[in-house]
From TrEMBL:
The lineage of its organism: Eukaryota, Metazoa, Chordata, Craniata, Vertebrata. Belongs to the beta-catenin family. One of its GO terms (cellular component) is adherens junction. Residues 71-107 are annotated as: Disordered. SUPFAM superfamilies: ARM repeat. This is PKP2 protein. GO terms for biological process: cell-cell adhesion; desmosome organization; heart development; intermediate filament bundle assembly; protein localization to plasma membrane.
Length: 266
C-alpha cells in the first residue's frame, strides 16, 4: 500500500508485476463473498488498486492505449453551438465523445482489470457494504480516477457506474457520510460523472436534491468543505447548462439562494 503511492515509476512497476493486480481483485472478491467487507486486508487491497488507477489513462502502455483509442481517431467532432461560456464551453463539449471501449474481455488479466466492469462493480459493492471510511474513500477514489479523463475509457466507466451497475444510490448515500473526506471524494466522483451529457438526466434525477441539501448556506471555513462546495457547484453547472428540466430541479430544490450566498462572498 505504501509502495503504490511512490509515484509514476512505482505504479508502472506494480501494474506490470505478473499476478499482483489479479491477486488483489481475487482477495476482495473473496471478502465480499464471505460477507467480510470491513477487514483491514480488504482496505489495504482497495487502497492499492486506488493508487494504481491514478492517471491510468495517461500512463497506460502504448499497446493498450492504441486499442482503446483506435475508434476515436476515426471520429470527427461536429461543430456545436457555444454554451454560456463561449468557446471554452464548446471545447469542453467537443471532448465529450461517447465512444465505447472495445468489447470487454470476459477474463481480464493484470492492468486490464483496473477498468473492467467486474472491478467497477466491486468498488460499488464496497461503497454500499463496507463501514470502514478508508475502504469507502478508496473505492470512491478509484472510480474518481477512472472517470477523470476525457477519452473513451473514462466515459465508458461512467456509463457502467450510472447505467449498467446502478451505482448512483450508493454514491448518494456517501454524500451524507459524517467523514468529510469520504463526502468530498463522492462529490468529486459525481463531478466527473456529470461531464457525460448522456448521463446528466439520470444523475440529476438521482442526486441533484442531495447535492443542494449538502451545499452550505455560506462560504465554508474548512479547506475540505470549501473544495467539496466548489465541486458541488461545478457538478450543478454541468447538470443544468444544457437542460431546462434540470435547471427547474435546481430551482425547486431551493438551490439558488445558497448559490447566490456563496457567490457574493470574495
Amino acid at each position: 500500500r505504501n509502495m503504490s503511492s511512490a509515484g509514476p515509476e512505482g505504479r508502472k512497476k506494480m501494474r506490470e508485476c505478473v499476478g499482483l493486480i489479479d491477486s488483489l481483485v481475487y482477495y476482495i472478491q473473496g471478502a465480499i463473498a464471505d460477507h467480510e467487507p470491513n477487514d483491514k486486508a480488504t482496505e489495504n487491497c482497495v487502497c492499492i488498486l486506488h493508487n494504481l488507477s491514478y492517471q491510468l489513462e495517461i500512463e497506460l502502455p502504448e499497446s493498450y492505449a492504441q486499442s482503446i483509442y483506435m475508434q476515436r481517431r476515426n471520429t470527427s467532432s461536429s461543430d456545436k453551438t457555444p454554451g454560456c461560456f463561449g468557446t471554452r464551453s464548446r471545447k469542453v463539449k467537443e471532448k465529450q465523445q461517447d465512444i465505447p471501449l472495445p468489447e470487454e474481455k470476459s477474463n481480464p488479466r493484470g492492468v486490464e482489470s483496473l477498468w473492467h466492469s467486474t472491478l467497477i462493480r466491486i468498488y460499488l459493492s464496497l461503497i454500499a457494504k463496507s463501514t470502514r471510511n478508508y475502504t469507502q474513500e478508496a473505492s470512491l477514489g478509484a472510480l474518481q480516477n477512472l472517470t477523470a479523463g476525457t477519452g473513451p475509457m473514462p466515459f465508458a466507466v461512467a456509463r457502467t457506474v450510472v447505467q449498467k451497475a446502478n451505482g448512483l444510490p450508493g454514491i448518494r448515500a456517501m454524500l451524507h457520510a459524517s467523514h468529510l473526506t469520504v463526502k468530498k471524494t463522492a462529490v468529486s466522483l459525481l463531478r466527473n460523472l456529470s461531464r457525460n451529457t448522456s448521463l446528466q438526466t439520470d444523475i440529476a434525477r438521482e442526486v441533484l436534491p442531495d447535492l443542494v441539501s449538502i451545499l452550505p448556506e455560506s462560504v465554508p471555513g474548512s479547506d475540505i468543505v470549501c473544495e467539496t462546495t466548489a465541486s458541488i457547484c461545478y457538478t450543478l453547472y454541468n447538470l443544468t447548462q444544457s437542460s431546462s428540466h434540470n435547471a427547474r430541479l435546481l430551482l425547486s430544490a431551493d438551490g439558488l439562494p445558497k448559490i447566490i450566498a456563496i457567490s457574493m462572498n470574495d
